Amino acid sequence: MTNQTKSQFIAVASITSELSAVMVVAKEISLAAANAKAIAFRAGDKAKGFQPITDFINELAKETIELVTNINIYALVLYRLTVDEYQKTVAYNKFELAAKMAEDAPYAKSMQEPVDHARLSMQDCQRQFKRDVSQLLGQLEAVMHHARAARVIAANSRIEASQAGEYLQSLQAVAESVDKAAHTIHDNVQRCRIALSIYRNS
């Protein structure tokens, strides 16, 4: 296995791992939204400004889960492409070696066509991998956007929670959990982007 193929396998595996963590955190945000909604309902007018925020938090969590689900499908495609590229690279290397060994043989020129075909097939696979990496990076950017939005919502949640009287601590805890989750999602997705960015420019 080539170093390039090994690093691609590692990159795709690390993305899958990071995204699993993002999915867990997004589900936690959804749960936090449900808890916040219940608290805001009990608080009534004291948490009137907090009630619509819970809908935003829940919607954000759902959209993040949907995005991550789609990204996981892309990650699986990248894994299959990496396997395919590895197999085609092995085939190309074998054809090329056979052609070199048969240089002095009477029908040596007949080897050129399969060598060229194997090389083109390998290169097509490499180009497809780069195209899919670019698309995946675009989807990861969308998740980053959601993480940034979650931080803004968390900041607004703190402001609204401060007006909630005896419910302040409960709603502040929700705001803190959303902010912490947003940080986690941002960091995990950033690691995915770093792992992939080298392939977009290579």
Break the fold down into its secondary structure elements and pairings.
Blueprint: H1 3-43, H2 51-101, H3 112-161, H4 168-201
Helix pairs in contact: 1-2, 1-4, 2-3, 3-4
Using brief descriptors, characterize the structure shown.
single chain; 202 residues; mainly alpha; rod-shaped
End-to-end gap: 19 Å
β-strand percent reads under 5%
Low-confidence stretches are: none
Count of separate structural domains: 1
Task: Tell me the overall shape.
Answer: rod-shaped
Helix vs. strand class: mainly alpha
**Largest sheet descriptor:** none
How many strands in all?
A: 0
What is the helix fraction of residues, given as a range?
Answer: over 70%
Helix segment tally: 4
The whole-angstrom Rg is 25 Å
Secondary-structure element pattern, one letter each = HHHH
Mean pLDDT: 85
Provide a concise account of the structure shown.
This is Chemotaxis protein. The protein has helices at 3-43, 51-101, 112-161, 168-201.
